[in-house]
Amino acid sequence: MFDYLIVGAGFAGSVLAERLATQSHKKVLIIDKRNHIGGNTYDYYDEHGILVHKYGPHIFHTNSFEVFSYLSKFTQWRQYEHCVLASVDGQLVPIPINQNTINCLYGLNLNSEEVAEFYNNRAEKRTIIKTSEDVVINAVGKELYEKFFKGYSKKQWGIDPSELDASVTARVPTRTNKDNRYFTDTYQSMPLHGYTKLFESMLSHPGIKIMLNTDYKDVIDIIPHKKLIYTGPVDDYFNNCYGKLPYRSIDFKFETFDTECFQPTGTVNYPNNHAYTRITEFKYLTGQTHHKTSIVYEYPTAEGDPYYPIPCPENNNMYRKYKLLADTLPNVYFTGRLGTYKYYNMDQVVAQSLALFKKLSTGETKEVNGHKGELIKIENKISDDRNRIYKS
Ligand SMILES: Cc1cc2nc3c(=O)[nH]c(=O)nc-3n(C[C@H](O)[C@H](O)[C@H](O)COP(=O)(O)OP(=O)(O)OC[C@H]3O[C@@H](n4cnc5c(N)ncnc54)[C@H](O)[C@@H]3O)c2cc1C
Fold first, then answer.
1. Ordered alpha helix ranges (H), the chain
2. 300 lines ligand 1 (CB under 6 A)
3. I need a surface site. Which of 35, 117, 214, 301 has the fewest CB within 10 A?
């Protein structure tokens, strides 16, 4: 009998597996339908011997000492501050927009105060900031919004920024100084030997068993366990009973060149041309030296693996219904980017799992809502579906 069955071997599931096994001496089984651990952060050496990220570039950054010191148990770090350029009006200029961006783009020589004035003169102040479009136009006006954000967001999310939550573009600030770094967090580092090695170290404990290439639905009824931690898509758990929560996916196209360097920085964004949103060259991120170089193009799509929950009022409302349902299950815990339908970074997911572990380890029981009739109906449907899987 396992104390915990954990669905998903990404950060959300693996942190909990590690904590429960090492700190609470629980017997844990972690299941993933993919053929590897690490979830979306999985990295591997490609056929040319270059370390690449299978599901797109993952740059670790956090302001949380707790998260950084926790992960430091499993890896050494390589300090890395990511810089991004955007291809705009035939030039490559820094993003987030800053003093260098404005001076480069408009052939000016403004100081910090003058750049603030430049933004102010163009900003169209909005009394209510609800959408991604509001955030940017309110801060820097329409022209910069159209050059840097509108096209990129449309490609990335498949909807106009005027329909996207403010939280999306609020993640990319506008600066008046010359700071070209993409992130300003206190801790910005990459795992020295890659993410997969970090996960191997995290999950290497006699109390943790790993089952790959397995959809949990195919085995859940035959593996005895006391509690379930679920980090897959929450709507999938409930058989999409309230409809399918929309996710954005990406097609990754990898290429390797017989040259040491392909582009001038880790990532170049293409807001206004090409079907892809950005190109990332991995050697900048990993620090690897190699006579060849591998890059990845990102083509956003509506279909495919669920990568990005799409934050907008309609989807948030649908999620709230699933959350109410999830809260009715006393021994099932939903966490992670997909389990809670939140556009979380790695460090936020780690923090979320550490917080859940604290609750589990102090014996704090889950607050359970009403909705019993509806719950029984759905549980019956789920178990009918599962029976069908085993019988087929
Ligand atoms: C393209 C891209 C770039 C990103 N870049 C960054 C970045 O630079 N910095 C950053 O901090 N964050 C970044 N993120 C976010 C980061 O990937 C997530 O925060 C983190 O990986 C979420 O971890 P998780 O465990 O919640 O989910 P995941 O890593 O998605 O893990 C969930 C796991 O559950 C498994 N699963 C799902 N359903 C089932 C099932 N039915 N049965 C069995 N297994 C199942 C999946 O196979 C998956 O492995 C990026 C995300 C994407 C998509």
1. 11-24, 65-71, 99-106, 112-122, 132-140, 142-144, 151-157, 166-170, 195-203, 234-237, 282-286, 313-326, 336-339, 346-361, 372-391
2. no
3. 35
